TrEMBL record, chain A:
This is Phosphate transport system permease protein PstA. It comes from Cellulomonas carbonis T26. Residues 88-305 form the ABC transmembrane type-1 domain. The lineage of its organism: Bacteria, Bacillati, Actinomycetota, Actinomycetes, Micrococcales. The keyword Membrane applies. The chain crosses the membrane at residues 32-56, 84-113, 125-152, 158-175, 207-228, 287-309. Keywords: Cell membrane, Membrane, Phosphate transport, Transmembrane, Transmembrane helix, Transport. Belongs to the binding-protein-dependent transport system permease family. CysTW subfamily. GO terms for biological process: phosphate ion transmembrane transport. GO terms for cellular component: plasma membrane.
From TrEMBL, chain B:
This is Phosphate-binding protein. Residues 49-59 have a biased composition (Low complexity). Belongs to the PstS family. Pfam families: PBP_like_2. Residues 53-342 form the PBP domain.
UniProtKB/TrEMBL annotation, chain C:
Residues 1-22 are annotated as: Disordered. This is Phosphate transport system permease protein. Keywords: Cell membrane, Membrane, Phosphate transport, Transmembrane, Transmembrane helix, Transport. It comes from Cellulomonas carbonis T26. It is a multi-pass membrane protein. The keyword DNA repair does not apply. GO terms for cellular component: plasma membrane. InterPro entries: MetI-like, MetI-like_sf, Phosphate_PstC, Phosphate_Transport_Permease. The chain crosses the membrane at residues 30-55, 87-113, 125-148, 179-199, 252-272, 292-315.
């Protein structure tokens, strides 16, 4: 990093100096840096590979159809039983509801920024959408809690609260990606529609949105992938529960990330030596298996998003 | 074409959701796909056809959670139409929700204070508040030291270790109490709970009562000494101790597992934790005075010298009313808590949570009250 | 994910709008109103976050020390400010540590993808790094707590034994290594992708002319990078680092699952029970907190919100300024 400060492009004499030095030293430095830069990339691969490897290796064993379709109700101690069905249901419902809130708001905001926004308000919205992407997830959780605690009293915990927290995190991501996609729509299309006498709003709905739909879907899927693994805000807004809860408006809900955390924090089970139905590491096993499912969901969403992007907009740049 | 693809994806997603929704089961224990098959020897049908139905909710101490899971499972299998929920929100949250009428019963690591008691009596009027010590759990002091699985320590030594004044395993204080043990030349790493907990409160209360000089800190649910290893929950501290070497912590005895345990100095002898020893100290301790007749609050005598008593225990109370507005709720609470206090319930908790079953003497007092709830 | 530039056709768009003005229809107005409303809603939500946090934190902010003493985890005679202090310190230590480890690696990766790797591979390599960002934080916590920390114990022990004279590495290293240093490593991995993504984007924008000029002068590839790419990308790197900092400041689960917390002002990174971050502390104490305790935790959350807001605003401001600059280029 020090190099950047000493070698401004305008430092002409030193540049010439540098370039007229004996070649071998410069070649060695060049090679060395190539190795350093390449190894930086390899270093980044280490955690990626090791995370995926450990999750796969530790999680695959417990993963079974049974694990996917049962909840944890009535499971205690080191019992060789229990699954993540309630957590999958919770994750899908809460994330789904968050998507229902975020997509309309995010998409309309993007339309506003691209098609209508002028002047100070638009600049402020652009700026604060960026700032909002940096809100810590736990703060979003506290916000949702604080909001609902006013109406429902302290200790409020149900699905919608978590969904609101997630939508605070999700909306700016949707705005960002949709905005980018809408800007990619060629203006000729808009102009052609206007020339035919189509009103602006109809042009946006029928022409602009339809052209950009692939990119927007991609963006939404990536946004979902980002929030589906959020733990902290759900930990404080949904709490934990062992049974299936299909009701977003009442009662605690379990979600996959919280399930992973909860199993992790329940830790080792001290098994009595004579106990037959007792696995000491059962909680960790379940945590790894649930983590595997979670990673699979996130990766599938990512992959799906890329596929949608490729399928709909083959000519898109990067 | 684009539309078709979107529609196809949506359809596939909907199908997946429906498929998943169709298979979901809230009964993992008896699910046919369970590895090794569903248990066939389990009490599949209740011998007496139970006519109880409905649902009842409780909330409170997380210390009771694993015992409560066993109780709920046992009670529900005997009464298939009943659903009992217990929300481990913490003792404080449980007391608040109980007083405000949000839940029918609560679990709390501490008895109600005066203010709460007054409010609770109002809530239960015209009935009375019931405070029953149904979950008695010894707290074990456990350590991870190669080749050593039991050490004797006086309260002052334990306090010294956790206060940071005794820092090595071969310190003279420990050596003097364990002349036959080869102690390694190794630093001691005490591990404490990082979250606020009843276990910490009982442990610090014990140290404060038994070794006031070595332990100058007031009893508190939050660990008063900073700068040590800590972790969340009983499992967390035990895990941390297991991962390290020369580590020591205090935790719910049910979590002690294969770690080395400390025999605590009581009077002239050193007592290993056991359910019986924990029950002994409860029996040796007097009832708190100035509370309603239905309140069975025990003033633990931490400095007891009663033979075979293990004074480092946590008592978690179950709070309920003797009468409920809705008689159906009362009936359920009565049936559930009677089961909990009964021999079957206490045995179930002892098996899964390692708690100490309440003594027969205490049961004979508590059970009539619980059975009278209506 | 860079924001694309304003399309040059905006002016015409304006004219078109003016031309159609007589056609004003209700549907159009409703649609325009809706989208403007959505944009405004974003601002309202952000303001509401601040407002509700403040509202909920108020009881704790105004409570006397006797009232606060009822919360066991607030030190005696403490005020909220004295409670927040070490937490803010711990949060900053964690984030800065992660940043120090992540930035050099991220710059390396970004350079590799933008200037060293074969062009054809660049996009997929970028995707591989993005995968790191896709992994949920709770899984990093699980990985860090159950897998990584065990493997770092020896390294930290060696650091403490050999470099213990530096206060940062004061020994003896804690066993198990539930220490800030471990957290720093995991956080660094987590913020690596965001820094890499921005840095890569910036490096790719280096004017080709500059690069070719350097090469034409006989510079080696590294010299070209040093003289053309890095100086050009400096402000972009700064904002990338700040974005990473913002992410690290608010990370909860990895810290919660790995660190032995403690409330002190200490730089000893290998000792347990010295630090705690705001976010992890909230998640730790929230489930069993009393109403006043929740209020105190929300007050700490407000502090975190303000800090991250400031960092992010600064980062965005740098980006925006840079964009103006490069746009004029």
């Amino acid at each position: 990093m020090t190099a950047t400060t000493t070698s401004r492009p305008d430092a002409r004499p030193s540049t010439r100096d540098l370039l007229t030095r004996p070649d071998t030293r410069r070649r060695v430095v060049d090679r060395l840096m190539a190795v350093v830069v390449t190894s930086a990339f390899l270093i980044a691969l280490v955690p990626l590979v090791s995370v995926i490897w450990t999750v796969l290796g530790n999680g695959i064993e417990r993963l079974s159809p049974y694990f996917l379709v049962v909840s944890m109700r009535g499971v205690f101690g080191g019992m060789d039983a229990g699954g993540i069905y309630h957590a999958i249901v919770g994750t899908l419902m809460v994330t789904g509801f968050a998507t229902l809130i975020s997509v309309p708001v995010g998409l309309l905001t993007a339309i506003y920024l691209v098609e209508y926004g002028r002047g100070r308000l638009a600049r402020a919205v652009t700026f604060f959408v960026d700032v909002m992407t940096g809100i810590p997830s736990i703060v979003a959780g506290l916000f949702a809690y604080a909001l609902f605690a006013i109406f429902f009293g302290p200790g409020v915990r149900f699905g919608v609260v978590g969904a609101v927290a997630l939508s605070v995190l999700m909306t700016p991501v949707v705005v960002r990606s949709s905005e980018e996609m809408l800007r990619l729509v060629p203006n000729e299309l808009r102009e052609a529609a206007y020339a035919l006498g189509v009103p602006k709003w109809l042009t946006i709905v029928k022409v602009v949105l339809r052209t950009a739909v692939g990119g927007i879907v991609t963006g939404v899927m990536l946004a979902i992938a980002r929030v589906i693994g959020e733990t902290a805000p759900l930990l404080i807004t949904l709490g934990v529960i062992d049974s299936i809860n299909y009701n977003l408006f009442e009662g605690r809900m379990m979600t996959l990330p919280v399930y992973v955390f909860r199993q992790y924090s329940q830790g080792l089970v001290p098994c009595a030596p004579e106990a037959a139905d007792c696995i000491a590491t059962i909680n960790y096993d379940r945590a790894w298996a649930a983590a595997l499912v979670l990673i699979a969901i996130v990766m599938l969403l990512n992959l799906g998003a890329r596929l949608v992007a490729r399928y709909f907009t083959p000519a898109r740049g990067h | 074409m684009r539309h078709d693809a979107t529609r196809g994806t949506a359809l596939a997603a909907a199908a997946a959701v429906l498929l998943l929704a169709g298979c979901g089961s809230d009964d993992p224990v008896n699910h046919p796909w369970r590895p090794g098959g569903a248990p066939t020897d389990a009490p599949a049908e209740a011998p007496v056809a139970s006519d109880l139905s409905g649902s009842v909710a409780g909330a409170g101490a997380s210390s009771q959670e694993s015992a409560m899971q066993a109780w709920v499972a046992g009670f529900q299998s005997a009464n298939p139409d009943v659903s009992v929920a217990y929300d481990p929100v913490g003792s404080g949250g449980g007391r608040t929700q109980f007083v405000e009428g949000g839940v029918a019963f609560a679990g709390s690591d501490a008895p109600l204070d005066e203010e709460e008691l007054a409010a609770a009596q109002e809530r239960c009027a015209p009935g009375e508040v019931v405070e029953a010590p149904l979950y008695i759990s010894p707290i074990a002091v456990v350590f991870n030291l190669e080749g050593v699985d039991s050490l004797a320590m006086s309260p002052a030594t334990v306090a010294g270790i956790f206060a940071g004044t005794i820092t090595r395993w071969d310190a003279p204080e420990i050596a003097a109490e364990n002349p036959d043990v080869a102690l390694p030349d190794l630093g001691i790493t005490p591990v404490n709970r990082s979250d606020e907990s009843g276990t910490t409160e009982n442990f610090t209360e014990y140290l404060h009562a038994t070794a006031p000089e070595a332990w100058p800190h007031e009893p508190s649910g939050d660990w008063p000494v900073s700068g040590g290893q800590s972790a969340q929950g009983n499992s967390g501290v035990v895990q941390t101790v297991t991962d390290g070497t020369g580590t020591i912590t205090y935790a719910d005895a049910s979590k002690a597992g294969s770690l080395g345990t400390v025999r605590l100095g009581v009077g002239d002898e050193f007592v290993e934790f056991s359910p019986e020893a924990a029950a002994a100290v409860v029996d040796a301790s007097p009832r708190a005075e100035g509370r309603p007749a239905t309140s069975f609050v025990v003033e633990l005598d931490r400095t007891t010298t009663a033979p075979g008593a293990y004074p480092l225990v946590l008592i978690s109370y179950t709070l309920a009313c003797t009468a409920y507005e809705d008689p159906a709720t009362g009936e359920l609470v009565s049936a559930f808590l009677s089961y909990v206090a009964g021999e079957a319930g206490q045995a179930a908790a002892a098996d899964t949570a390692g708690s100490a079953p309440v003594s027969d003497a205490l049961r004979s007092e508590v059970l009539p009250v619980l059975e009278g709830i209506g | 994910m860079s924001t694309s530039d304003t399309p040059p056709v905006r002016q015409e768009d304006d004219d078109l709008q003016a031309a159609r003005r007589p056609h004003r229809d209700t549907a159009g107005r409703v649609f325009a109103g809706l989208s403007t409303g959505a944009g405004t809603l974003i601002l309202v939500v952000l303001a509401a976050v601040a407002a509700f946090l403040l509202l909920r934190a108020w009881p704790a902010l105004t409570a006397g020390s006797e009232e606060l003493a009822a919360i066991s985890w607030i030190p005696d005679h403490g005020s909220i400010v004295r409670y927040v202090g070490p937490l803010v310190f711990g949060t900053l230590v964690a984030a800065v540590l992660a940043l120090l480890m992540a930035v050099p690696v991220a710059v390396g990766i970004a350079l590799f993808i933008s200037h060293y790797a074969p062009r054809r591979l660049a996009a997929s390599l970028g995707y591989v790094v993005d995968l790191l960002a896709a992994i949920p934080s709770v899984i990093y916590g699980l990985w860090g707590g159950l897998w990584l920390s065990r493997r770092l114990e020896g390294v930290w022990g060696w650091l403490a034994d050999n470099l213990g004279f530096i206060p940062l590495f004061e020994g003896p290293a804690a066993t198990p290594p539930r220490v800030m240093m471990t957290v720093g490593v995991v956080l660094a991995v987590m913020i690596l992708p965001i820094i890499t993504a921005v840095a890569r984007e910036v490096f790719l924008q280096t004017p080709r002319l500059h690069e070719e000029a350097a090469l034409a002068l006989g510079a080696t590839r590294w010299e070209m990078v040093r003289m053309a790419v890095l100086p050009f990308g400096r402000s972009g790197l700064i904002s990338a680092s700040m974005l990473g900092l913002g992410r690290a400041l608010g990370e909860t689960m990895a810290v919660l699952m790995i660190l032995s917390p403690g409330l002190t002002y200490s730089f000893a990174l290998l000792l347990a029970g010295r630090h705690q971050t705001i976010a992890a502390n909230i998640a730790l104490q929230f489930p069993e907190a009393s109403p006043l305790g929740v209020s105190a935790l929300i007050a700490t959350g407000l502090a975190l919100f303000v800090i991250t807001l400031a960092v992010n605003m600064a980062a965005r401001w740098v980006v925006a300024r840079r964009k103006d600059f490069s746009g004029a280029n």
